[in-house]
Each structure stands twice: as structure tokens, then as C-alpha cells.
Design a protein that fits this description.
Rossmann fold; 282 residues; phosphoprotein; CheY-like_superfamily; alpha/beta; YcbB; Two-component system, response regulator YcbB; 5 strands; Sig_transdc_resp-reg_receiver
Length: 282
């Protein structure tokens, strides 16, 4: 299981890590004392179980849970709080917390994480059994499984780009799902018919999507500055946004005045469709 630990006390992080690593199956993939850093990290790396304290900055643990939920980031969550009152308990469980404990006891966290890990393994095994059963029983169901893998992979890509919490995210997902389902490129779609919207609604939707894509360009440019030789980032730059747009944003972030490129919806959505094919060839 992949764990992430967030606590403003480094000594407590160390105690939790040591407790978790008693099992060779557990891997701590990240640690932070900062709620915003945790949110940014979980947008980019896969985490099975988040162990987080309520008392954080620049916002508290409950707000972190809400931000993760809004961004469709759903690890299993163990939260600790010194004096959890009823409103906090209710809000925490409502926003995805699996266990809320009062005292930060590493041994207790280890046993709780073991329970959650067992549940996750059982669910994973059940999914594998269901997929095998479905594939044997019905070719149509096998097609549905492939479709789900494609759309899930695109959703993971959008989360990696840091745009899952943006207003245009849902529209991007809807359009991509139609493209995957029909195996059509962006210019072959009839969105007014497929989404049952009029021309004005489509125009407003495109504006939201363009603003969301621009956020993706900004985030990807920042990652390219930090990791200039990362091939996956370069692939995303070329296939989704056009590298010239990423390059212009990199120049802008470095303080160089340069005219930014034009966002192409067709280039972006056709790139997402091509990205979805990766899982069908893996």
C-alpha cells in the first residue's frame, strides 16, 4: 500500500512512518507538514491511504479533505485530532474520512491501516474476478471495460495536470467520454446534439474549458521548469497543448515578455483521445 503522511510535527511523522514500515508491503511515498503541499502532491502521485492531522496550515485538515473531494482525489483517510467534537466528526466522515482518532498513537494507526489495506486488497481482487468473469461471458462487457479504462486514464491525466478542481473539468470529461465512446475526433462531434445544448450554452462551455486548459498549461510549464528532461511532461506538452504554448508560458514565468499562443480545443481533445489509447495497448 502507498501511504502519505501529513503532520506539522516532524517527530510524529517519523513515528508513524516507522510504525507503517513494520510491514514490507507498506511504502511511504510522501510526507509533508503543509496542507497545500499535500494537496499539490496528491494531484500528481497515486496514494492509497492518507494519514493526516487536523491541525495544519495554511488550512486545516478538514479543509484539505474538502479540497481533495472536490478534485476527485479519493485516497482512504485516517485523521487525527486532539479534541474531535461532534460537528468535526460529522464533517470529516462526510468528506471522505474513514477513521478519526483522538490520540496520535502510531501503533493504533498501524492496525487501522492494516484493516484498510485488507479491505482495499479484497476490493481489488473482486474487481479482477468481475472483469475476468465479464470478459468471458460477454464481448460487449469487455468493450465496456476497455472504455472505462480509457476514461479513467484520461481522468488521471487531468488530475496530474492539476485541473480536476477547475470549473471546466466536468465539461472536458463529458466531451472526452463521448469521443472515446464513439471513437471520434473533436471535429466529428455534434455537441449540441450529444449534450442537448444550444449554441449559446456551447459557447459558454468552451470558455470554461479554455480557462481550464490555460490552468493546465500554466501547471505543466511549471513542472517542465522543475523537470526539463522529463519525457512524459514533454509528451503532454506536445500532444495536449502544443509545445510552443508551453514554451511561451515557461518564458513568461521566467520573466520574459512574450506573446502567448492560442489555445486549440481540437488539439487538446484529440490529444486526450490519443492518450486514452495508451491503456488499450499496455
Amino acid at each position: 500500500m502507498k501511504f502519505y503522511i501529513t503532520n506539522k510535527n516532524l517527530d510524529k511523522i517519523s513515528l508513524i512512518r516507522e510504525a507503517l514500515e513494520r510491514s514490507f508491503e507498506n511504502v511511504v511515498v510522501g510526507e509533508s507538514t503543509d496542507a497545500q503541499r499535500t494537496f499539490d502532491d496528491l494531484r500528481q502521485i497515486k496514494v492509497d491511504i492518507l494519514i493526516v492531522d487536523y491541525d495544519l496550515s495554511p488550512f486545516d485538515g478538514l479543509e484539505l479533505l474538502k479540497k481533495l473531494k472536490d478534485a476527485n482525489i479519493t485516497p482512504r483517510i485516517i485523521m487525527s485530532a486532539n479534541t474531535p467534537k461532534a460537528p468535526l466528526l460529522e464533517a470529516a466522515y462526510k468528506n471522505g474520512c474513514d477513521f478519526l482518532i483522538q490520540q496520535l498513537n502510531p501503533l493504533e494507526i498501524y492496525h487501522i491501516s492494516k484493516i484498510i489495506s485488507t479491505q482495499l486488497k479484497l476490493l481489488s481482487n473482486m474487481r479482477v474476478i468481475n472483469e475476468l468473469s465479464d470478459n468471458l461471458s460477454n464481448p460487449y462487457d469487455q468493450q465496456q471495460t476497455t472504455h472505462r479504462k480509457q476514461t479513467d486514464h484520461v481522468a488521471d491525466t487531468l488530475r496530474f495536470l492539476g485541473i480536476a478542481s477547475e470549473k471546466g473539468y466536468d465539461s472536458i470529461v463529458k466531451i472526452n467520454n463521448i469521443m472515446v465512446d464513439k471513437d471520434q475526433t473533436f471535429d466529428q462531434l455534434n455537441l449540441e446534439k450529444d449534450l442537448e445544448i444550444d449554441a449559446n450554452e456551447k459557447k459558454n462551455m468552451y470558455q470554461r474549458i479554455r480557462r481550464t486548459i490555460y490552468v493546465g498549461i500554466t501547471n505543466l510549464a511549471t513542472m517542465c521548469i522543475d523537470y526539463p528532461d522529463n519525457e512524459m511532461l514533454l509528451d503532454y506538452a506536445n500532444n495536449l497543448f502544443g509545445y510552443q504554448n508551453i514554451h511561451a508560458e515557461i518564458q513568461h514565468q521566467n520573466g520574459i515578455e512574450i506573446e502567448r499562443g492560442q489555445i486549440s480545443l481540437q488539439h487538446f481533445f484529440d490529444g486526450l483521445l490519443q492518450e486514452s489509447y495508451r491503456v488499450t495497448h499496455s
